[in-house]
Design brief:
The protein is an alpha/beta fold and 293 residues long. The protein has helices at residues 13-24, 58-71, 134-137, 153-162, 227-234, 269-289, and strands spanning 2-9, 29-32, 75-77, 81-87, 90-95, 101-108, 113-115, 130-131, 145-149, 168-172, 187-189, 193-198, 202-207, 212-214, 217-220, 222-225, 238-239, 242-243, 256-258. A hairpin with a 4-residue loop joins β13 and β14.
């Protein structure tokens, strides 16, 4: 069985930031996670992150971060984590391809999973009228008619971000009941969706009753899940769909830290980088001082 002092689950900004701190402190560090990039991999241009005079794409930012970590000795393993269990000296992280990786500290940094509806056309227009972040991409659709797919608090948040920017905002519930209070400025389309249509980019949602909604962009905001499931399996406290963590990014499980989108709040790169740094520094203290909190 592999032995590592720190195991970081997730190779996005939070996970890589944590790894940069632990590796530079001389602590053996491994990042484990599927290299799908999550929501950031779908960002065509990022203009609101410090230090880049020109826009950078999400895939490029992810690649550069991983390269930076590997340059200082971080091992990056492209495997899907299926469970975490406590062990006598820390934790064992199981993947679909490996019996287990042992570590004294585990940092959960897998982001918040963006559930994707199984509508015909959604993959076709991914990045061409389909977005997963209103704060990131809303500016590009100012004055345009947009829609938000979802029916709960996350969809409400995205819609509220878009209201002062877009020409109109329509909530597309796909027939699901509302689980949040939406203001009257947000139109509600509660018909089940048949498919997404357009040419080189998305231009309309076709409903099963034959009607259609013309739009320039669809922002997908169907709940959050994924990272909280791993935390749940080991008994970490969950608040809604977010992992509960303190200011040092500690969960209620000694030695298990969490950082980034999976802890809730502002889903932005800057916040993920900060929390990753805080988790990395706490991991260093745990290992050096032999403490768990």
């Amino acid at each position: 069985m592999d032995t590592n002092n720190v195991i970081i689950i997730g190779s996005g900004p939070a996970g890589v930031s944590a790894a940069l701190y632990t590796a530079r402190a001389g602590i053996k560090t491994v990042i484990i996670g599927k290299a799908d990039g999550g929501a950031l991999a779908k960002a065509k241009e990022i203009e609101n992150y410090y230090g880049f005079p020109a826009p950078i794409s999400g895939p490029d930012l992810l690649r550069d971060g991983i390269t930076q970590a590997q340059r200082i000795g971080v091992e990056v393993i492209d495997q899907e984590v299926v469970s975490i269990e406590e062990a006598e000296s820390g934790f064992v992280v199981h993947t679909a391809e490996n019996d287990g990786f042992a570590g004294k500290v585990v940092v959960l940094a897998t982001g918040a999973s963006r559930a994707k509806p199984k509508w015909p056309g959604i993959d076709t227009f991914d990045g061409m009228g389909i977005s997963y972040c209103a704060v990131c991409d809303g500016f590009f659709f100012r004055g345009k008619d947009v829609a938000v797919a979802g029916s709960g608090p996350y969809a409400l948040h995205e819609a509220q971000v878009l209201l002062p920017i877009a020409g109109s905002v329509t909530l597309c519930t796909d027939g699901k009941p509302l689980s949040a209070d939406f203001p009257p400025e947000i139109k509600i389309a509660d018909q089940p969706v048949a498919c997404l249509e357009g040419g080189s980019a998305l231009s309309r949602i076709r409903f099963k009753d034959g009607t259609a909604l013309q739009l320039s962009c669809l922002f997908v905001a169907i709940g959050t899940a994924g990272s909280s499931e791993l935390a749940n399996k080991i008994g970490a406290d969950i608040r809604g769909s977010d992992i509960a963590a303190d200011g040092d990014m500690c969960t209620n499980i000694p030695g298990l830290l969490a950082a980034g989108d999976c802890t809730g709040g502002l889903k932005q790169i800057a916040k993920a980088v900060y929390e990753g740094a805080a988790a990395g520094m706490k991991a260093i203290r745990i290992i050096r001082e032999g403490q768990q909190r």
